[in-house]
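ok so dumb question maybe but i'm new to this and my supervisor (M.) told me to 'just get the structure for Homoserine O-acetyltransferase' and walked off. so i did the thing. is this what she meant?? sequence i used:
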Amino acid sequence: MPINIPIHLPAKQVLESEHIFVMDESRAFHQDIRPQRIVILNLMPKKIQTETQLLRLLGNSPLQVHFTFLIPSTHTPKNTARQHLDEFYTTFSSIRDKKFDGMIVTGAPIEHLAFEDVSYWEELKEILEWSKSNVTSTLHICWGAQAGLYYHYGIEKVNLPKKTFGVFEHTVLEKNERLVRGFDELYYVPHSRHTDINMEQLEASDELRILSTSKEAGVCLIASKDEKQVFLTGHPEYDTNTLLQEYERDVSRNLSSVEAPKHYFREDSKEPVNRWKAHATLLFMNWLNYYVYQETPYEWE
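this is what came out, is it supposed to look like this??
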């Protein structure tokens, strides 16, 4: 089944060229199927790139999925055209009375700031609180995961001595958990972050389960016991060249601490190799199927 997206969204043409089945709104309206309603709070600077990455991962679902793109009203994005934001995005005030089957909160390049110093922190807190009663399950990614863990469970982020940057091997700890069903015992995830989660506080929580970890990158996948909150510290949605683009950006800024991403390039070359795509797709499919579709009511009260 297809993903349901606006006719003129830039991601539509890209996904169709990759033979991912997309359906425009007019065709979806005439199908007698209730789509899964997913709201994506997109905090990444390159919003069109992030839209395409997330829709690609959800595009192989057997479900019809309808997306609403959300941005904070208290922050003005600098890297996306105003016309694109006006056409495809909305703000929290327009959806606060609605119910959604799932929500995705993306990362954001603001790790150096305390949560309380983020310009839209108060609005984000309001959205996260709203999600507890208006969303069946929420998937938080990278900084979004750290923000969600801090808000919902009081788990703080900690600074790392150097950036966790590269593609790292992870071990599945909860092999019978539905979210990692079908996973190999070892799998790969890209990471790009200067901060980590306070592990002492995380392990002390009786509301959370650690599902996978990495010897080099630390904890990766966490889920609440009621399955309403999922936290992902890496970036499995990244394209093959995304880490390379970040590396070249940092090199161009003459940052003294820049190191090449680990375990990312082919041996004896500077060509990236993608070793995370299959598990990334499976993770998003498992979340959409087990945590969203099979748990959400057909009709919200």
